[in-house]
Amino acid sequence: MSRTSPLGYIYCYMLSHRFPEEIRGNFISQQGLKNLSDYKYSGEDKSIIYNYAVNPFAKFLCTLTPTFVAPNVLTLLGLLSSVAAFVLGAVYIPTFFEAAPAWVYYASAGLIFLYMMLDAMDGTQARRTGMASPMGELFDHLCDSLSMSLCGLLFGACIRVGPAFAFILLVACWVPFYLSHWDDYNTGKLVMGKFGGPTDLLVGLSGLLIFTGAIGPDFWLRTIHLGRWDLAYNHALMIPVVIGSFVSGIQYARHVFKGKPAEVSNTTAVLQLTSYALFLTLSITWAVAAPYLLHTYPHRWMVCLGLTNAYLLARVIVGRITKQEISKTHFLHFVLFAGLAVSFFSSSYALPWNKGNGAPSHVEFILNMVVVHVVLAAAFVQWSFYFGSVIKQLSGYLNLPALTVPEEKRRQQEQKNKEGEGKKGEGKEGKNKKNKKNGKNAKEKQKEKTSANREKEPLLSSKPSM
Questions:
Q1: Beta bridge partners of 224
Q2: Confidence band (pLDDT; 50, 70, 90) for 348?
Q3: Percent composition of the chain: helix, strand, coil (DSSP 3-state, to 5)
């Protein structure tokens, strides 16, 4: 009897688990696809900035956008805008300490504003072209799940907090965003408050970048004297951000426990967070165990984690739309664990051939360089493969192209829009005629009333002469 190698055991585990279907790109089961017929979007954005400024402007821009432009194209252009803003920050502020030229901040602000507007336009464009569907909503959220991490890193680079504090800001961005979709998964409704929503944060980030470009990035290194302590402006700005993230997380958790279905216990709802808790534990442990990696390749290492976060978040969003359970372990968990193990055992205090004086050896440098790029590649491949596979499944099932608007569908929607405008016009015209008729009848009634009053008045007669 032949022995089974370790790789054989791993392969057998994959066969007995769910990986074969995922390797083929079948992330959504047939039952999940059937559940799309029962899906109906239920969400509300109470943001004052969104409702009174961003959304009206987005609707106006949609009237200037041709109907042959697919809404997902706008969403994809928005993602590319956020990527371009991040790349500018990564090139000119590579370690989160540098001061970039003023134009970098202005350009980044413009790109973030463009991302925000395109993200607001895609829904209106989908309704204009008749392309509104669960696939469009999913496409939008999958792009946002990655853009959110990129915007968080740009924020840290803007205020020059260094890689360690930038990682803290990144986690502060991740947690409430994930919990909001966990809330939606359990309660069936995504509600964003009047303040502190995604639109408000993007407007704030754009304004912060413009402010930094105008006043100079050295502003954030100034300090406030608080007795024996000196608090830098950038660290002072982090305090409300971290506190706001914590408070938002508590609010989402309370909403889940109050609004979830009765058949879902509190324990079941909490266990749904197992996958994300494992990811956060691995990420924080990796940051603490391998500070050399964090300070040497900060952007690349945190993008690895950002892609993993986006992937895990996408699994929750897909589960919500298709009514599938949230998986507790994923391939990227094993990738992060392997990267953590290599970084830890290659550190200067773990390997016997290192100097032992805190200085990285050549072995540590090479191993960390390899591991960060391997994990980055694995995370990117997994996220993009999942993104493409899910959109392909939905596109095939719903018979809707992802990045184009069918000519026939576009013409049908344009005809519906014209008919709707015609009915509105007829309604207004009918209302005007009715008002005129009512006015005419009122005048006739007034005349009749006046005539009747005159007939009732006694006729004045002159007295006879004596």
A1: 231
A2: low
A3: 75, 5, 25
Which band of pLDDT confidence, cut at 50, 70 and 90, is reported for residue 464? Answer: very low
Which residues, including other chains, have CB under 8 Å from residue 72's CB and lie 6 or more apart? Answer: 122, 131, 136, 139, 402, 403
What CA–CA distances, in Å, run from 52 to 44, 47, 65, 120? 14, 8, 21, 13
Which residues 6+ apart lie within 8 Å of 149 measured at CB?
170, 173, 174, 302, 303, 305, 306, 307, 309, 310
Task: Give the Cα separation of 397 and 36 in Å (integer).
Answer: 9
Q: Are 315 and 330 in contact (CB under 8 A)?
A: yes
237-263 residue pLDDT tens: 999 999 989 998 898 898 888 888 878
Instruction: Give the whole-angstrom CA distance, residue 211 versus residue 223.
Output: 18
Secondary structure (DSSP) of 99-147: PPPHHHHHHHHHHHHHHHHHHHHHHHHHHHHT--SHHHHHHHHHHHHHH
- pTM (two decimals): 0.83
From residue 297, alpha-carbon distances to 90, 228, 291, 376 in Å are 11, 34, 10, 11
Alpha carbon 79 to chain centroid distance? 10
Structure tokens at 358: 């805190």
Give the three-state DSSP class for 224: strand
Q: Is 325 exposed, middle or buried (0-12, 13-18, 19+ CB in 10 A)?
A: exposed
The answer to whether residues 447 and 439 touch, using CB atoms and an 8 Å cutoff, is no
Closest CA to 185 of 27, 322, 278, 330: 322
**Residue 212, token pair as written in the block:** 């930094």
Name all contacts of 260-268 with Cβ < 8 Å and 24+ positions apart: 260/186, 260/187, 261/186, 264/186
pLDDT-based confidence at residue 217 (cuts at 50, 70, 90):
very high
Model pLDDT, residue 46: 80
- Confidence check: pLDDT of 457 > 70: no
Report, as an integer, the average pLDDT of 392-415.
85
Determine how many CB atoms are found less than 10 A away from the CB of residue 156. Answer: 26
The pLDDT of residue 409 is 73
